[in-house]
Design goal:
The chain is mainly α. The protein has six helices and two strands, in the order ααααββαα. Strands 1-2 form a two-stranded antiparallel ribbon.
Length: 152
């Protein structure tokens, strides 16, 4: 295939549209969360992921699993956890069965902030998708997002 191959051009255009949609949504949510709750999108995502942990088998996530869930490197995730821990929103503790493992839990203050921020996040997501749906290039992607319904 060459650089002028129509299939490659279509793939590149599709990827650009997807990247544009993601960027617009993330920027809109970021502004709303910062203004209303002093949270970044990454901080909100981390609190959300960690709030879904449970005490059953496989219920607590290792840092590499958390990093994958919030789409950050392990070192960036560790820095993010530290920032939120310093704000009293998270706590870390050693795994009771493997002293090398460190788990992270959302504190009561973190759960309260997450509950307060969730409607803001959801409204900003809806607004960003509604705005993107007005763009003919992004509208098909918006429909895919809206119909996905895949639990994270």
């Amino acid at each position: 295939m060459t650089a002028t191959d129509p299939a490659l051009t279509a793939l590149a255009q599709g990827w650009c549209a997807l990247s544009l949609l993601h960027g617009r949504i993330e920027a809109h949510i970021e502004r709303a969360l910062q203004a209303g709750h002093d949270l970044s999108v990454r901080e909100y995502s981390l609190l959300d992921v960690l709030s879904r942990q449970h005490d059953g088998e496989g219920g607590h996530l290792q840092m590499k699993q958390v990093a994958a869930a919030v789409v950050l490197s392990q070192s960036a995730t560790t820095r993010l956890v530290t920032r939120l821990e310093d704000r009293g929103l998270l706590s870390r503790y050693l795994c009771p069965t493997d002293r090398r493992g460190i788990y992270t839990n959302v504190s009561e203050a973190g759960l309260k902030l997450l509950d307060e921020a969730r409607p803001t996040n959801d409204a900003a997501l809806r607004e960003a998708l509604d705005e993107a749906a007005k763009n003919p290039e992004l509208a098909p992607l918006v429909r895919v997002v809206e119909s996905a319904g895949v639990p994270v």
